[in-house]
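Encode chain A's predicted structure.
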Amino acid sequence: MNVAKSSGKLGILVPGMGAVGTTLIAGVYAINKGMSKPIGSLTQMGRIRLGKRDMDNKPLIKDVVDIHALQDVVFGGWDVFADNVYESAVHAEVIDKTMLDELKPELEQIKPMKAVFDKSYAKRLEGTHIKQGETKMDLAEALMEDIRQFKETNGCDRMVMIWCGSTEIYIEEGDVHQSVTALEEGLRTNHKDIPPSMIYTYAAVKMGIPYANGAPNLSCDIPAILELAEQTQTPVAGKDFKTGQTLMKTILAPGLKCRALGINGWFSTNILGNRDGEVLDDPDNFKTKEISKLSVLEQILEPEKNPDLYKDLYHKVRINYYPPRGDNKEGWDNIDIFGWMNYPMQIKIDFLCKDSILAAPLALDLVLFLDLAKRAGMSGIQEWLSFYLKSPQAPKGVTPMHDIFKQQIKLENTIRYIGGEELITHLGQDY
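Encoded structure for chain A:
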């Protein structure tokens, strides 16, 4: 495969410079200054097996494919608040203040551009740093001008965009989403089913900039954007960072299934107090996240194919806004399982995590792999990046894959393919 070199500067554009966005940015600066290791990032620390098992050849992924160097990235973005990245990171309370103070000279230089925002799509947010425009197309064109100016000012050779903003209200795919023509007409007429995240998506893909969706919003997973992505030869990936509770589900559920253990019920509840928790406290926004979370077990367990084990599974998901926790999310699961002779058993999981600490390395890998995909001439849905996403995109008519271990196989074989290495089929000695 012919892959263009990763020379020059890579601009990483972040709509939503809150907890996740600032944790990503601060983390990269900390890594570049030798203050931290890129833990959780496969592009930086992950290894991949090449050849047969007896060769014991497991180089770093970044030594197999040309991953853009962290020292040559530059960050920009948009937010509904005017705080610079240092101020926003302090407010988010994810990263230790002592470390943030050491990064302050770099972080305070990054100031968000005015955001595209409409309170009707995120009712709990009170944005003040907002773009004005008569139509949604005007706002899309303003974003494209922001991108052009950022690229020129920072001397970027290439750009990538990743949505780290809030979860929007639930929107179903409709006629306005079926073609580029329909979407562009909807932008000109302020169609209600075009949320802010979709305006960012349109602006990026229209300019040929790879785009990843880190929230469950309807943005790049519509026919119009996929049509546009083919026109501009742009890779896209969505949606919703796979962190916390869903990460545990995609690890545990395949294990129970492969051992043919039954499940009667899976109750999941979360408490968190960051901006995301506040937004999700609204039922319309929670519905978007709920659908993303509920789809995981359905696909992995396939109850219609395994009715004796899963047809009566009761799956409940709850998210509770609890301000004292801040970004320290707690995901609690009760799983009622049954085994031989229908004997009942239970599994309890209490995952106390920092949501943004888990999300930041995913965001980093997504932008670096999307940049690689663009340089490799790959466009449209990058299904091999499903590994990072809670509700992954798949081609129309194809069931998305949620099993993290099967996702890992696809990810690694795609890396081998891009790197010109032999694929591993898990047959014979190859296994």
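DSSP finds 14 helices and eleven strands in the chain.
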